[in-house]
Design brief:
By secondary structure, this protein is mostly beta strands. The protein contains 2 helices and 12 strands, in the order ββββββββαβαβββ. It has helices at residues 127-137, 162-170, and strands spanning 5-9, 12-16, 27-36, 42-47, 59-63, 93-99, 105-112, 122-125, 152-155, 177-184, 204-215, 220-227. A 5-stranded mixed barrel has the order 3-4-5-7-6. Strands 10-11-12 form a 3-stranded antiparallel β-sheet, with no helix packed on it. A two-stranded antiparallel ribbon has the order 1-2. The relative contact order is 0.13.
Length: 228
């Protein structure tokens, strides 16, 4: 199905065939955070090196302006506190932004590389095991999963050998697409969202498409997610 949107600008009309994709930041890099600079919004980072496949490339300083506006109930939308200590820092972060007037890169958005990696942390084999994981294990101990990412590949294959795991992962090829279902429950903790304090909190959900693309900085395939 072909969709057409119409945008009117004064006496001119512009037609487009797809919803625009909104991306924050003109440039991006793959880095690992080393340490913050006390009293500033600056972080020392080190870039990923494609040849060594390690974070031993160029070192530089970047700015990560803190989100200073808290919600009415006291929670911040995000934080850079202890970013270098996050377990996600091991695989690095994609940072998106542009340089300021002094030539320092200012990070406008950030995403953990592990979130888009094709290699899962675990694989379940067989339909019953996949159902059991989705129904019982995926949402277990959510408090203990704070600040972490879990990726599990559920496959109908019945063989759980190393060769079968590799074969299941290798089925993803550049150009393949998958349906994304994003679910969100709400912010809890000491500064809860008001609605999260009630017994039932509906949160929100969104759909999107994850396409396998070649990522040149890491020299590997990864998921590229677009929400609709």
């Amino acid at each position: 199905m072909k969709l057409t949107q119409q945008i009117e600008i004064a006496d001119d009309v512009l037609y487009i065939n797809a919803t625009p994709v909104q991306i924050t930041g003109r440039f991006y890099a793959l880095v690992q955070f080393v340490q913050p600079v006390a009293g500033t919004d600056q972080f020392q980072v080190i870039h990923f090196d494609r040849s060594s496949r390690q974070f031993n490339g160029k070192a530089e300083m970047m700015r990560l302006p803190e989100v200073l506006i808290a919600k009415a109930y006291g929670s911040y939308p995000s934080t850079t506190r202890d970013l270098e200590r996050s377990p996600l820092n091991e695989m690095g972060w994609y940072v998106y932004g542009a340089k300021d007037a002094q030539g320092m890169f200012v990070v406008q958005s950030i995403a953990p590389r592990a979130l888009f990696h094709l290699q899962p942390e675990a694989v379940t084999f067989g339909r019953k095991a996949a159902y059991s994981y989705v129904r019982n294990r995926a949402w277990a101990n959510v408090v203990g999963q704070k600040g972490k990412i879990s990726s599990v590949l559920c496959t109908s294959r019945s063989n759980g050998s190393d060769a079968a795991i590799k074969a299941a992962v290798d089925e993803w090829q550049v150009g393949d697409q998958a349906l994304v279902l994003h679910t969100y429950g709400g912010i809890g903790g000491n500064h809860k969202e008001p609605a999260a304090a009630t017994p039932i909190f509906f949160g929100h959900f969104a759909y999107g498409i994850a396409e396998v693309v070649y990522e040149p900085l890491a020299d590997e395939p990864r998921f590229d997610i677009n929400y609709h």
